[in-house]
Design goal:
single chain, mainly alpha, Arc Repressor Mutant, subunit A, three-stranded antiparallel sheet, elongated
Length: 163
């Protein structure tokens, strides 16, 4: 039987490039399953506390960033600017943060976590840590370090400007 272009070779006769492409695709699909599963578990746990993932992201961003534009904060929280405004309003109403205006730039939002906001954030971060513990419970430290190196290389390739 003739093999035309584009046809699959006999099992075990694939080229090294084809095997690499298959493994790369499998790895990408597994990363997707892992991130979707992680997010789903975290959202379920947060929901049980009356929280959402965008709210948790906001609290974390407020802790980590000083003066920042609302657009930058929205990108960090992975929401639209309109959604960010609603999340910010809810956080102020719930007394998780105190808002203000930047002295450097009037378009920038200043926000500070209240002690209640800190407590909420710590609760959410503890939930995330429990999920991470579950995910990686049977994986050794050296394997995690190597995995991080591989993932960082992939991220660098994504962020590189094409020639």
């Amino acid at each position: 039987m003739k093999q035309g272009k584009g046809r699959h070779k006999e099992p075990g006769k694939e080229s090294k490039a084809q095997r690499k492409a298959f493994e790369a695709r499998t790895c990408t699909m597994n990363m997707r399953r892992l991130t979707v599963g992680y997010r789903s578990l975290l959202e379920d746990m947060l929901r049980g506390e009356g929280l959402t993932l965008p709210q948790l992201r906001l609290l974390k961003a407020v802790r980590e960033q000083a003066d920042v534009s609302a657009a930058a904060l929205a990108r960090t929280c992975q929401v639209t600017p309109q959604t960010l405004q609603a999340v910010l309003a809810r956080a102020v109403q719930a007394q998780w943060i105190v808002r203000g205006k930047s002295e450097k730039n009037e378009r920038y939002v200043t926000a500070t976590l209240t002690s209640l906001g800190e407590s909420i954030l710590e609760t959410g971060m503890a939930m995330a840590a429990r999920i991470e513990e579950r995910i990686w419970k049977d994986v050794g430290l050296s394997d995690l370090k190597r995995l991080n190196e591989v993932l960082q290389a992939g991220i660098a390739n994504l962020e590189a400007v094409p020639a």
